[in-house]
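User: Run a structure prediction on this.
Assistant: Running it now.
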Amino acid sequence: MDPLSLLSRLATAVPPPRLHTVRYAGILAPASKLRPQIIPSSPVAAEQVGDRSEEPAKRAGSRYRPWAELLKRCFAVDVLACPRCGERMRLVALVTEAASVRRFLRGLGESTDAPARAPARGPPYWRSRVLRRAAGEVSVA
């Protein structure tokens, strides 16, 4: 088997990103109400529960993160820092209507037309060198 054929067969066995290959059902499913009763807790969590028997359990905070914070974490760019003075900028308005966007872009001297789309490319050439050689498409050098 030539290397390209081997790699194409191996590539089909790799799952897509963020796809779990093991799925649990029933009581082991992530959303099961009975799961906390059968899953063992960590020793640290057990100690914390024992120490705070009188205090009510606190709810976990919101997992929401503003878009600016996410961009700063991913790309190390603070999009809300003013380029001139370095102070924090704040959102004043959100423009969603097409007429307002065109008027705003004209005021900035930018183009109001959408960029042209690139032409579609052809399909990938996936057949291996062995198959192309068998079909007479590849000359043996």
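The mean pLDDT is 80.
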